[in-house]
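Fold it.
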Amino acid sequence: MASHARAERTGFWFLKTIDWLRKLGPGLFFAAVAIGVSHLVQSTRAGAIYGLGMLVFVLLGLVTKYPTFRFGQQYTTATGFSLLEGFRRQGRWALGLYALIALATVFTGLAAVALMTTGLLQFSLGTSVSPALVACILIATCSILIIIGGYHRLDIFMKVLMLLLVVATVTATAMALPGLQTSAAGLSFEIEFTPMVWFFVATLVGWMPAPLDAAVMQSLWTIEKSRDLGQRLTWRQASADFHTGYFITALIAVCFVLLGTAIMRGSGVEIAEGATGFSIQLINMYEQVLGSWSRPLIAVTALAVMLSTALIMLEGYSRSIATLVFQTLPVGEGSSAQVSTRQIATAMLVLNVGAMCVLIFFMRSFTAMLAIATTVSFVAAPLLAWLTYRAMVSVEVPVKQRIGKGLQRYSLVCIAMLTAFTMFYLYLAVGQIG
């Protein structure tokens, strides 16, 4: 009898685990978007240049962005509408603001991610074909995979890719940790805060874990996940998905700070400025410290990071733009609940053309364009956080599913902090120009 009861309990927990895995999706998609340049480059560079003291600011970014990203999924489970519909109900100006932010950032951002992924891919394979050409092919290939596979297959693929990413990153970090024990510089939490250091901190916090327009993507992925499952997700179900993705995002961020500290801090090597150059430098130094056998591990980790970001960024922006242009703007009133594959493909084609034009015709001014895009996204963060908060506390959210006073206060404090970060960033940026 006892063995029978144990077998029943084991079967119950196995089925519960399968059901939990089946309902994962938007949270992992968010983690894939977030774990890109901000993690692989910025977090690693934070540890490499400044040591473990930067962990405080990494965690600060994660804490201040938490409410906005949470509301991206929670609003949709409560109302059945996307966050874009929540913006529309606040006025067309809110949709216009989002459209301007997307227009200013999406083409250059996608091109930058594709270019960095290309650099890592070429370094791993030892090829020297034109990076811009390979990046264009990469974007087109990702688009084809998304269209052919659809949401369901992409959902399965991302679960496998995120598992690979987590295992590879945690394993790499565990192997590098002994380096901290012999590095007094790495273990130090003391940082001399010069204006340039504060500028780095402002950028690190502002981009950790991701730009806030990813909350719109989460909202739309939640709708699509409900369609994929054949039932509308509740917040209780979506909460497990969101917090799993957010925990993975935080874990990988901490891991890369530790990697940068253990492998590169105090090494005497000048840190490369470019994102691709820095990533390649990280792979080389990892090999030098731990041996040639470790090269494939860190190379796979870096490629998994950037490939997942490229795939999900392309899917998420295509879905967001398609919903905005074909559903929310012309019709409204909950119409953003569904968007067709053809509409997503049309938006994806526009993104392909725009990103490829940036890669082919504007490479000379690419750095300046990327700086403009990142600044726009950074400055818009408090506004997007405020719009998302207003949607979450609006009357269309059923009373039983509204957030409590404590979470409201916490969200308002976070918005105030994001505003302070933005003002500080602009102050430093103006100081640099002057």
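Residues 72 and 204 are 22 Å apart (CA to CA).
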